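Lab notebook, bench 4. We co-purified these components, and the gel suggests they stay together. Before we commit to crystallization screens, I want a quick structural picture of the whole thing.
Request: model the full complex, all chains together.
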Amino acid sequence: MLTDKTLEEIERIKKKYPNTKSACMEALQAAQREKGHVTECDMRAVAEALDIEPVEVQEVGGFYTMYNVEKPKGRHHVQVCRNLSCSLLGAEHIILAIEQELGIKTGETTEDDRITLSTAECLGSCGTAPMMQINDEFHEDLTVDKVSDILKGLK
Amino acid sequence: MENVLLKNINNPGGHTLKNYLAGGGYEALKKTFKVTPDDIIQTMKDSHLRGRGGAGFPAGLKWSFIPKDPTVDKYVCCNADEGEPGTFKDRGIIEYDPHLLIEGMIIAGYAIGAATSYIYIRGEFEFGAKRLEAAIAEAYDKGYLGKDILGSGFTHDMYVHRGFGAYICGEETALLESIEGYRGQPKKKPPFPALSGLYSKPTIINNVETLACVPPIIAKGVEWFTSMGPEKSPGPKIFCVSGHVEKPGLYELPMGTTLREIIFDHCGGIKDGKNFKAVIPGGVSAPLFKEDNLDISMDFDSVMAAGSMLGSGAVIVMDETTCMVKSAYIVNRFFSHESCGKCTPCREGTIWATKVLRRIEYGAGRPDDIELLESICDKIFGRTFCALGDGAVMALRAFINNFREEFKYHIENKKCMVQA
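Here is the predicted assembly.
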């Protein structure tokens, strides 16, 4: 079930396009904002709101990497860029330091559901490498010390 | 040189309409409404503005392909899916000067007779998307968007469409599929989007930087634009410099500035006094250069003649401590991750090449692995719908051809030739 707030948001998104199918991507993004991931049930609800087939929503959910389909994340989703510019400036050390500090491996979530650690491909912040994204926010010009402080600030 | 595209890059309040107007913003739009759409297309042709997304196709020519039939709906799409690794220029424009892009898009809409435009921005640019939406709302509020703009009789609506994680959506047909709510997979061309694009209607798709060049061309004139850079690819160009340089960042310079000037004059040289080893001139799809190519002019034709691509102007610099096997592995891993899966040679080939590179990097390379990689490249190149597979191959071939000894050393000695 989607909240009334999300359903209202979906109605607003529908107005941007000549057909409701085009609203599918952003409608599913709105659904994901509720709890950080989407379920099969959410995707059926989005399909219903847009009057399209559930499979049309599922194929979008399965293709684009930012949809967390049936994959709950921690409250803070830390994604460290591992592409070339960040790697040249030490992204590997940053990833290793986070794994050590949190006691988890890349792809895992801390036991208290506080933090999920992932790697990401280029996030468009190469001039301020190495960098990571935590939920919607970019953190740039990282050092191992700076990362440790940032992690401690995540509640 | 005075920054035009990055005028507000160091101005924290520069993104507001108030600031944009104070700097002469939307004057180009007023000028536009005094002439015919065909005049604007001719001005764009005369300016020789070439697409800053990577392909370098002449923007005016692209616009001129749109059918003139007024009864047919047409669309303007802005490609803000900035994803080519090493590239961060469009983000700079979007975050610091969103109205420059918006004004460029309205002018493009007037030129081709489009009542609607979409900005396709990658999902990770949450901050940029919010900036754009706020700027579009400001523009509506003051009558620069919506019905009968500035009393011209021209009506135009603009929307932000947010991607959600897919490099391939920077490819124009995949981008259109994505706006229509499908998986972002490229389609065979022709038909080209100018005839059958978004919702099968005539559509132009231009990069953020290309569209941001439009208002200054109208406001300052064609001569201003063509006074910079080579005759066949003039104008200012934003270079995104990253990697081992003292001062990485965005640099707005005349098209045709040399790599040596960019790296050593503007960016302060190689970081920590180390020696230069290699540079990728236009994002990771572009074949890398060694020192002997540092004096080539950074414009579309010169870089292509030297065997690489200007691409998005993403200059990635590598110093003497960089392991080329590892770099090739990282780049290829990216392509295998981002292959959309539509064409078998790309889908399977990039994964296979990544596997081989990985085993070389981790000391398990086999004696004939270089030949195997070359054979995989041959089987991908030219056999796919879009350029992703070709880009992966061109990048990998350049790594191998320029640093074959390093690959051999890695296989034979199970370790790096360089000491990081």
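Chain A touches chain B through 42 residues (CB under 8 Å). Worth comparing against the SEC data before the next meeting. DSSP finds seven helices and four strands in chain A.
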